[in-house]
Sequence to fold (618 residues):
Amino acid sequence: MLDYLIPRLSFAGGHLRPGDDGVDYLPRGRVVVTGDMLVGSTDVPPGAPMESVGWKAVTASLSDLAATGARPVLVFVEMGLPPEMELDELKRIWSGIEMARDRYSVMVAGGDTNSCRDPVLAVFALGEAERPVPRGGSRPGDLIGVTGTFGRAAAGLHSILTRDLDHSWEALRRSFLWPVARIEAGAVASRYATAMIDSSDGLARSLYDMSRNSGLGYLIERLPVDDEVTRYALTHGLDPERLVLGGGEEYELIITFDPSSERQLREELASVGCELIVIGRVVEGRGVWRVQDGAVVQVPELGWSHFGR
Amino acid sequence: MLDYLIPRLSFAGGHLRPGDDGVDYLPRGRVVVTGDMLVGSTDVPPGAPMESVGWKAVTASLSDLAATGARPVLVFVEMGLPPEMELDELKRIWSGIEMARDRYSVMVAGGDTNSCRDPVLAVFALGEAERPVPRGGSRPGDLIGVTGTFGRAAAGLHSILTRDLDHSWEALRRSFLWPVARIEAGAVASRYATAMIDSSDGLARSLYDMSRNSGLGYLIERLPVDDEVTRYALTHGLDPERLVLGGGEEYELIITFDPSSERQLREELASVGCELIVIGRVVEGRGVWRVQDGAVVQVPELGWSHFGR
Fold:
């Protein structure tokens, strides 16, 4: 396996090379470090292509970087693989990792394989940012914006798990299997954001995370429901609002910002091909609420539950 | 679990804080990144204290840094834990991580828990070094030195697995359960080393790794056998040379250096409480050999086999 992997590692240009256990480079500024673990039995639905598993493991870590406004430099991948796994499966996982490497222009600078009953991909990402944005920096009166509509990945996962492989829902399944981290959007938004987080744990839970860190309240005035999700939900007897609030593995950014910077933020996001949907505002008092039928109601801390559990 | 873990993370002094998904800091020089994964079913023998599991996961990653000559700055820990694991067990693992944090003066700057059937600790370590030492830099004529005797961890593991818990072997068991990464030795040796590697995969396999990276040969003229390992092996009908060559989870450094720097290297290592045992020299031709009964014989690529497999 190492014979397969080592020649495929990027050379970071430092003193250490692929084949060494580490990698080195000379940063140009502040370094941001983050990581994410993908576990086969809980994060990969039956039938998901192995390439998607590698892609998603890298995307999830880079999305955490994006949410701080950092530009990714390198990822380091540690794999736990069942002893009975075929080399071909490893190659397909690795090919997904390389697809992500090329898409995000990041180095895959180190790797490591271990024997593990449950397949596990632990990805560690390192990036650079002048002023990393924390998730707890919101101020009362800030607007809450998101970089896209919600619920697509949750609907796509539902379609995969229920084996409703109708062609109409292909785009939703793709949203789940091939999500894209908002790197450029994170970098430009970081100049205006008071706080930022990615929505990988779902909209509601991510807002609760912001609330725990800021001690403030997050009031949703308009749910960023996706039209296709609404159609999917209606066809399948699901509650679209639940998919939007409680779905997960969606890599939009949630940004809080001063209302005076709305126009500039919107323009800058548009310049990197990304919309800004204002969904509410930051208020005093810890919690997450939404305006529903004219009343303010508390949002349950719905969140990403690993499927099947 | 996060309520338990987040307040226990170190604050790196940057823009991000515990509770954010990442950590940031301003490096003073060249950054070295490495990582290691510890898997419960293959790396932890029955009866090992949970504290030792956390300690070893951090030590293994820091030993990889030490082998480049880097001084550790921070570690990032991603855990996969079985859903049925008690909070008390997590606390004991974490307490081992904190013992290592204090021993090595490193920040535990990020953490993450996931559900996984096999307990897994993925540790990433970040350090700084002026000139990181690669494992493939040896030159023909270099001497091969090691920072201690070998076989202690292998004998200790044998004693644990065979439940020979005789008090005489307590120190050997401690070598396995509470190994120490050679941070200071790595930093001082990096000024003289042409190549360096830690011996975590065992002496033979580590030399083969050096050989693969340098294209040179490694000739062992004197095996660094530990006296206590010899006694243990005699008592238990084991081959001490096999424990020395094929044992693993030993965190000595293997250093190659120009013979002219031997005295200085020895003095500098002594100044950080570490010995230098010269075991052989680097020769032309790829491979690993030893002098045995006056003849040169090839060393089998014995190495660390995960126990029970």
